[in-house]
Amino acid sequence: MRVVSADLWEPAPGQVLTWDVTPGVGLAPAAAPITFNQRNHLLGARGGEPSVWITAAFDVDGPVDPEVLETAFRELVARCPGLGVEAVRGPLDRAGGVGGTDRAGGIGLVRHDPARLVWQRHDGPVTRTVEDTREHLVAELGRRCAPFGYPAFLPAAISRPDRSTIVLGMDHLHTDAWSTAVVVDDLAGLYTQRARRGAADPVVATAAPAAAGLVASAAPAANGPAGPPAEPKLVSADDPRLATWHGFLRDHGWALPTFPLSLGTPDGERVPQRTVVRSLADAATADAVAVRAAAAGASTSAAVLATFARAVADLGGPTVLETLLPVHTRTDEAARGSVGWHTTTVPLRIEVDTPVEVGPWAAPDTRDGAGTVTDLALAATGKALRAARELSAVPLEQVLGTLPRALRLPRVDIFQVSYLDYRRLPGHPAAAGRRAHHVSAATWADDLQVWVSRTDDGVAVRARMPRTPTAVGTIDALLDRWAARLADLAPA
User: Fold this and answer.
1) Fewest Cβ atoms nearer than 10 Å: which of 131, 333, 371, 452?
2) If you write DSSP's letter for every residue of 31-90 in order, what string do you get?
3) In the prediction, which pLDDT does 370 show?
4) Helices and strands in the chain: count of H runs, count of E runs
5) How far is it, in rounded angstroms, from Cα 222 to Cα 182?
């Protein structure tokens, strides 16, 4: 899976196809539950934040068969109740109830019956360049994947004589990074299987058996035992994990942490984002880092985080890096194939100046004489990471609702470092052959956000930051230093 942003996406030109999907007349949609992530996302959108969409894109052989692809899209939506959800403002009169309403925010969700959806295909332009193709699709994604109204997704394709690209853009309301990989795998399977035997009759949601691993919704009750992970339950007021969350925020003056190096944007000011996608370690280096991390009782993700913190310190940052870490909430095999926004966020402290003990393969750092990340540092980061992940059991709503004072948000963006090992996700063996892409919208930025991907090719990063001269110089130097620190971990 290649993780990029819209400004770096390079879709080859061809015949662009899109589909409009509209709710049918008759039965009113039913009220649906709303999660913490969804509510915050919708409140931001209602306040004027730009559309935040995520697109699953992959290639198939030959020109697109529009009828077969439409059938595959229909079947995917029928099997993903979350894609039938619509975000609405104000009272849910037309839903016949207020079960999904957030009374404080005046927003809510309703769910449409997929069997009553009306699909209409549009044969768009034949693009001639990558730039024209990207511009057209990004405009369509921005228009169609806004969270309010239905649908908040865009089925599309770029048909070519030899090899075509299938696209499903979704507002963040419906998906996360893990889910995007699931969508690629299942939609590719649905299309190729139907293409081999020809388009079948339209799929009815109640009649089709679930595709392998594909059950999805924002509402656990809609899916039965194989549904998505349930929202975490409230913990007791004296739970030490809740106290840890409070202590982290108290130490920051009841505010979220921000990236400690200057990015050239004053608090309260946002500028167009800049995206950087690059390799941090090739496959051999990543494998060697994994071996060393395991010997220290840590994971590859701990090694990535430890070297990131060390690289920040190398550039003048603090000796204790504090950030937020997105973690998925899929805890059992049944939830692995779920599609939705199934993540939470935990606080993480990484101590750079952990007392060192040089291991048998600890290579000295010959670049600037600074201490290298050694086995004890890896072990300490591994322990901190395991402790941080335990905090995912505390609902974020409870954390914020029990603070002694209101949380301060010095910036709109949240300084976070995400890590996802795509080798463990559904469809990974076929992802490279499909040229699978996770494409995110490019909007505005005022802080650094980092997504790290582990694949068979090694470790790669997508970094999102403000497009300022200061941020360009700082983050480019940081990524260089980070890659060097990872290389230092690999045994000679």
Assistant:
1) 333
2) EE---HHHHHHHHHHHTTPPP-EEEEEEEEESS--HHHHHHHHHHHHHH-GGGGEEEEES
3) 42
4) 11, 18
5) 19
Residue 364 corresponds to which amino acid?
Answer: P
Nearest to 111 by CA among 222, 2, 16, 210: 222
Distance in angstroms (rounded) separating the CA atoms of residues 372 and 365: 6
Measure the CA–CA gap between 173 and 128, rounded to whole angstroms. 32
Q: Which tokens is 336 given?
A: 């692995």
Q: 123 exposed, middle or buried (CB, 10 Å; 0-12, 13-18, 19+)?
A: exposed
Alpha carbons 448 and 315: distance in angstroms, whole number: 15
38, 90, 310 from 103: Cα distances, Å: 14, 8, 45
The SS3 assignment for 100 reads coil
pTM of this structure: 0.88
Check residue 164 and give its pLDDT.
98
Q: At 178, give phi and psi (nearest 5°).
A: -60, -45
> What b/e sequence results for 316-338 when a residue is b if at least 16 CB atoms lie within 10 Å of its CB, and e otherwise?
ebeeebbbbbbbbbbeeebbbbb
What are the per-10-residue average pLDDT scores of the chain (492 residues)?
Answer: 96 98 87 92 91 96 97 95 90 40 70 95 97 97 94 98 98 96 97 77 36 33 45 92 97 96 90 97 97 95 97 96 95 85 96 57 38 78 96 96 94 96 96 97 97 98 97 98 95 66
Q: How many CB atoms lie within 10 A of CB 118?
A: 10
Q: What are phi and psi of 338, to 5 degrees?
A: -80, 150
Task: Tell me the residue type at 178.
Answer: W
Both structure tokens of 144: 């169609």
**Residue located via tokens 């388009």:** 199
- What domains sit in the chain, N to C, each tagged with a CATH number? 2-224 (3.30.559.10), 240-489 (3.30.559.30)
